[in-house]
Design a protein that fits this description.
- It is a single chain.
- The protein has two domains: 162 residues, Rossmann fold (3-Layer(aba) Sandwich); 56 residues, Alpha-Beta Plaits (2-Layer Sandwich), CATH 3.30.70.20.
- It is 37% helix and 20% strand.
- The strands form four sheets. The protein has a five-stranded parallel beta sheet with strand order 2-1-4-6-7, sandwiched between helices.
- The protein is globular.
Length: 259
């Protein structure tokens, strides 16, 4: 069973690719979070969890859901971390959580995907993003699928205690001080298409009197900013000239013969 959490579609693309190539079931953790469903999963094949990296770790809301989740059948879990560059120390926290659930970490893969971190400003153009997806991400996904298909166990990565501790501190500070939609603004380009409301995995956005209103639940996935077709949502004035990125649908790429 392939479980995924995705803000702008990168992890969703990866999960659907793997489900297709491994002939396995694909389950959206976004849907479970958004609709407050019970996280209970059964699979005879190894579980595969695919999620992005936020400040060196899986999103806190994903870790919380996984700790709460009930897993039946297979005792093995593969983790896939989608990220813009391969530099994080999330493996120890994932292995610790998995062990506490009486399960085995079969391996952690780092999957390079187009950057979607809007506050950083370095968002690729659509053409550059699709080039990277086709010639970097998809070849990596084929290798990951091959490894999982033979149920191979990846060696544990070498953990640097200092780097791990620093990553934990950075992640804590990031979640405490950086994750907020308080400075999100909606300009006159908004046509109330409600895409932002639909894409938000934590129901942080509601439409009041024809305008998107942000509550206090933001987890910093920036799906709402990236999915907006009119670039109507911004972080103050900081992102007005920044590109937007939302990953293409895997099904569309398959139909076009791109994967």
């Amino acid at each position: 069973m392939i479980l995924y959490f995705s803000g702008t579609g990168n992890s969703k693309f990866a999960a659907e690719f793997l489900a297709d190539h491994l002939k396995d079931q694909c389950v959206s953790l976004n849907d479970i979070l958004k609709h407050k469903k019970e996280p209970s999963f059964r699979s005879e094949k190894p579980f595969v969890v695919c999620a992005p990296i936020y400040a060196g770790r899986y999103p806190g809301i994903v870790m919380k859901l996984l700790r709460k989740a009930q897993f039946a059948g297979s005792k093995r879990i593969y983790y896939i971390a989608t990220l813009g560059s391969k530099s994080c120390s999330c493996e120890p926290s994932l292995r610790k959580m998995t062990s506490e659930k009486g399960m085995q970490t079969a391996g952690l893969f780092f999957l390079t995907m187009p950057n979607n971190y809007v506050p950083g400003g370095n968002i690729p153009s659509k053409a550059d993003a699709e080039y990277q997806l086709k010639y970097v991400s998809v070849p990596e996904l084929y290798k990951i699928a091959d490894t999982i298909s033979i149920n191979d166990t990846l060696p544990e990565g070498t953990a640097n205690p200092v780097t791990t501790a620093l990553s934990s501190s950075v992640n804590t500070l990031y979640n405490k001080f950086m994750v907020s939609s308080d400075n999100f603004v909606v300009n006159e380009n908004c046509v109330v298409c409600r895409k932002c409301e639909k894409v938000c995995p934590v129901n942080n956005i509601i439409i009041i009197n024809g305008d998107p209103v942000f509550r206090k639940r933001c987890i910093g996935c920036y799906g709402c900013i990236n999915v907006c077709p009119r670039k109507a949502i911004n972080i103050g004035k900081k992102t007005e000239k920044t590109n937007r990125y939302f990953c293409p649908e895997y099904s569309d790429w398959k139909e076009k013969g791109l994967v």
